[in-house]
Design goal:
The chain is about 60% helix and about 5% strand. By secondary structure, it is mostly helical. It has one domain. Strands 1-2 form a two-stranded antiparallel sheet. The N terminus is likely disordered.
Length: about 150
């Protein structure tokens, strides 16, 4: 799924980790590429309906994450540590951090021992938290909205 963002909105989405991230959302798992041969037409109609619902669910999911992120970024009553804590909750509840970390490590994941993988996963999450939370002060009240989406493929 791709969303169309303005440059300012894209910067906010990147700073919140919404772009290029592995979302862990049941609505997105409804997407199914499938094949067209040897399948009754009714199955394809059902698939189209499911994909449209998945798109709507995906857009709502991204909007909800953006609203949550903007909420803690714009709350002047929160300390930096509390913002960081809220960001950590946002990551754990909405992003497949294991998949993102494995993707970032690439081919080296296969050659790492279990102990190395475990340590890497902890360090990766700490790095993400520290890098992005250090950018929270750059937030100047921009809004994020999903202007459209489409399935890839």
């Amino acid at each position: 799924m791709k969303a169309n963002f303005s440059k300012k909105k894209m910067a906010l989405a990147v700073s919140l980790g919404l772009v290029g991230a592995g979302f862990s959302n049941p609505a997105l798992s409804a997407w199914n590429a499938g094949t067209m041969h040897n399948t009754p037409i009714s199955a394809h109609i059902l698939k189209i309906s499911i994909n449209e619902n998945a798109l709507d669910g995906a857009e709502k999911f991204v909007d909800a994450i953006a609203d949550q992120g903007i909420g803690f970024l714009s709350d002047s009553n929160l300390s930096d540590q509390k913002r960081k804590s809220e960001f950590q909750k946002l990551l754990k509840n909405n992003f497949d951090m294991n998949t993102i970390a494995r993707f970032a490590l690439g081919r080296y994941w296969k050659t790492a021992s279990q102990a190395q993988r475990d340590e890497y996963m902890k360090l990766f999450e700490t790095m993400i938290l520290n890098v992005y939370s250090s950018r929270f002060s750059e937030y100047k009240g921009e809004k994020l909205s999903v202007e459209g989406s489409r399935p890839e493929g």
